[in-house]
Amino acid sequence: MRLDTPDVAAKYALDALKAIPPCGAKCSEQDKQDLVYGVFGMGLLFHVLYATANDVRYYQPAHDLYTATVGLLMDDAKRAEAQKNMGILEATLKNTKAGTGTHDKGAIGSLLNRHNQEVQACYEAQLAANPKLGGTVTVNLDADATGAIKGVASEPKAGLADLSAVAGCVVEAAKTWKLPKRGMPGTTRIKLVYTMAPRK
Q1: C-alpha angle 25/61/6, rounded to 5°?
Q2: pLDDT tens for each residue of the chain, 200 residues long
């Protein structure tokens, strides 16, 4: 579905949730939960778009999808996340002012998780040289109102070996990432922390 027709996309998502009970034993519990969490993720996306640009078209679809999935999420942490996000969304509506909008850092962080595979690839590339390599890489992003990443810094700083090399690889990848546009000028700063350890 087109991203600028959130009400239509939300309708299909809600129809998919309604199809879960009739599916019965033909659908595994994991498949059902994957679908529920996918619909929750769509609600999160609409929430982010609403929060960044205060485009009211995204508020009700986001709220409807949160409401529909909160009670269906079996994982306590995911259910708590959904409840928290719904509270943030409702508070955002009450405080909305025309022509404003800012990145919700928590929601944006969730969207940036889709780049985790790139980070993992950077780490695994260095594991070949050092199979015991592990530790934490912190990445700080600066994004402008268009969502473009204008600055990236890491700890440890980019280098040639071990975690420094991982950090350098992640920094280069992060320069190509993009956040949604928002409705006000300024810089959004996001801090991402990646903890890495070799698989046993």
Answers
A1: 100
A2: 666 788 999 999 999 999 999 988 899 999 999 999 999 989 988 888 787 766 778 889 999 999 999 999 888 888 898 888 888 888 877 665 554 555 666 667 666 778 999 999 999 999 988 999 999 999 998 888 788 899 999 999 988 889 999 999 999 999 999 887 766 677 878 888 999 988 76
- Compute the distance between CA of residue 190 and CA of residue 113 in angstroms, rounded to an integer: 12
**Residue-wise burial string across 173-197, b where 16 or more C-beta atoms lie within 10 A, e elsewhere:** bbeebebbbbbeeeebebebebebe
Q: What is the DSSP string of the chain?
A: --TT-HHHHHHHHHHHHHTHHHHGGGS-HHHHHHHHHHHHHHHHHHHHHHHHH--GGGHHHHHHHHHHHHTT--SHHHHHHHHHHHHHHHHHHHT--TT-----HHHHHHHHGGGHHHHHHHHHHHHTT-TT--EEEEEEEEE-TTSBEEEEEEESPP-SSHHHHHHHHHHHHHTT-BPPP-SS-S-EEEEEEEEE----
Residue 154 φ/ψ region, left for φ over 0, alpha for ψ in the -120 to 50 degree band, beta for the rest: beta
The pTM score is 0.56
Token output for 171:
């920094």
